Amino acid sequence: MKSGVPILNEPGGFTYIEALVSLSIAAFVMALMPSILMQFDAVQSPKKGFEMDFFIFQITEVHEGSTAVAADGENEVITFKTAKGDISYRKYGSRIVKSVEGSGFVTVMFEVEQFNLRETDTHVVLTVASGEGENSEALLFTK
Q1: Of 72, 71, 73, 52, nearest to 63 (Cα)?
Q2: Are residues 15 and 76 both part of a single domain?
Q3: Residue-range definition of the domain harbouring residue 18
Q4: How many structural domains are present in the chain?
Q5: Whose CB has fewer CB within 10 Å in the chain, the N or C terminal residue?
Q6: Distance (Å, rounded) from C-alpha 52 to C-alpha 49?
Q7: Are residues 57 and 114 in the same domain?
């Protein structure tokens, strides 16, 4: 003689009670879903300036591999002399573009508000601001 409850040990599939339990759990989860989504919708995460971080990483890497730095204050162009040629960065509209040997361009940053160059005897100071002043960085390059 078998022991246990025969309703729960049927190998033929779901029993009526198992189906009711699973459907009631699914209905409970679906009833809670709108309130859970509204709770997470109210959470505001701060905007991150990943473009600014990538631009700083890229221009720093180019500077480390360069032999000289030149700045054109009138045209707002900073140029690095490297083994691959002259690599320059400038503001074009609301973007910062990178050119190699003065030809072509690659957009490296969007929504740029400020791109200012200041040159001293030993350094070039680049100030970049984006996102309505949310991200502002000043970079110092030795000549």
Answers
A1: 71
A2: no
A3: 1-44
A4: 2
A5: N
A6: 5
A7: yes
pLDDT in tens, 17-27: 988 999 999 99
DSSP structural state of residue 76: T
pLDDT (tens digit, 9 = 90+) per residue, 57-73?
A: 999 999 999 999 999 87
Residues 90 and 109 reside in one and the same domain: yes
Question: At CB < 8 A and 24+ separation, what contacts does 105-108 make?
Answer: 108/54, 108/55, 108/58
Task: For residues 37 and 65, state if they share a domain.
Answer: no
pLDDT digits (tens, 9 = 90+) for 98-122: 999 988 889 999 989 999 999 988 9
Nearest to 85, CA basis, from 60, 72, 104: 104
Angstrom distance (rounded) from CA 82 to CA 80:
6
Kindly report the pTM of this predicted structure: 0.66
